[in-house]
Inverse folding.
């Protein structure tokens, strides 16, 4: 079993946030009854990112990982500080092309395996240019069409 080494990020998140840090909107000195039950919001950086300097976002452009729940257009969170080991979903540079696949290996063979039967395995031979780029830690799957439209590239008028 391999020991994974993580580099610590300077960003510490908002876990030290407490109830006393919430400022009441009432300037008269009397707080609202709900102030006692206020909770801090969810910080997605804190929840989904282990190492901020080594984390990147990608948009999936293929259906090669469909059976793993990764759809075209999904946003992938990729951590470059996690070691690519067998069974992990990775972003890999193969012959100057970035691919998202399962990284698999046995004693003396390595390959990239898709999660869609339409695609075949990619054997990583001796002369294949292969570099694991990072490990997929999260997939953000947008289901509301208006959010896709909101995030669509804006057309520049000349």
């Amino acid at each position: 079993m391999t020991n994974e080494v993580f580099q610590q990020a300077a960003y510490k998140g908002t876990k030290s946030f407490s109830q006393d840090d919430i400022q009441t909107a009432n300037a008269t000195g009397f707080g609202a009854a709900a102030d006692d039950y206020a909770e801090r919001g969810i910080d997605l950086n804190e929840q989904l990112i282990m190492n901020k300097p080594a984390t990147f976002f990608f948009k999936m452009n293929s259906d090669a990982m469909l059976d793993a729940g990764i759809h075209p257009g999904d946003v992938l969170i990729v951590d470059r500080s996690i070691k690519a080991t067998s069974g992990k979903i990775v972003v890999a540079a193969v012959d100057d092309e970035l691919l998202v696949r399962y990284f698999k290996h046995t004693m003396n063979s390595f390959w990239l395996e898709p999660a869609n039967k339409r695609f075949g395995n990619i054997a990583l031979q001796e002369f294949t240019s292969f570099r694991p780029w990072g490990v997929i830690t999260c997939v953000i799957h947008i289901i509301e069409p208006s959010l896709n439209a909101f995030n669509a590239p804006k057309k520049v008028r000349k």
Observations:
- The two ends are 58 Å apart (CA to CA).
